[in-house]
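Re: your question from the hallway

Yes, I did run it. Sequences:
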Amino acid sequence: MKTASAISRSALFLGIFAALAAALIAWTWNSTKADIERSVRAAEARQLLEIFPENTHDNSLIDDRFVLPANTPLLDLRKDRSGYTVRRNEDVVGVILPATARDGYSGDIELLIGVTADGSVAGARVVSHKETPGLGDGIDTRKSPWMLSFDGRSLASPSQPYWSVKKDGGAFDQFTGATVTPRAVVAAIRRTLEYQALHRAQLFEVEIADNPAAETGP
Ligand SMILES: Cc1cc2nc3c(=O)[nH]c(=O)nc-3n(C[C@H](O)[C@H](O)[C@H](O)COP(=O)(O)O)c2cc1C
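Structure:
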């Protein structure tokens, strides 16, 4: 009898210990998850503000988002991603669109492209990529200023035939020994501009006449 009660006491202690351990793990997981979510959100907000700095708008970009579904034509997204509306005095002065270049050297290159109300690029940033360090990773603004060469560009400047890398007769530099990566990014940004040209009324929340896109050289 004594042995039976000792066993049930041990079982009870073991049960309490297991429940406490499970509670501790759940608490740690929850607080880590919240920390990770907070830092992902902060990184995302930082990138949005690199494209449209504080002085260009008066809304919270990270909170003014809309969903663009996976496989949206021209944007080529693999999964649902957020787009962001940029407002000033209640006017939509820009949008930030996600796009995927599926033809990077080492797979998908995820991008964010800011477009102003006049249809020009406010800024473009790479969110993630797996390109080769020293060859294709110049698309990261921490490695090279190459992405800044899209600032102010539009479907009219350069005109369609020049929306490619110089090696293909276009307006944009490639990298030394690496043409595949910049070629993929140039094409993805051009497609994103085409997407916004097709959906301007919806994106900018007004009825807008067609994008004035006089064909000019680079
Ligand atoms: C190991 C290795 C890694 C490479 N990584 C890249 C890369 O990340 N991006 C890229 O554009 N080219 C990369 N290249 C070079 C491409 O294979 C290709 O030669 C170059 O982009 C020129 O392409 P093109 O002949 O179409 O102009 C890599 C080549 C090797 C051997």
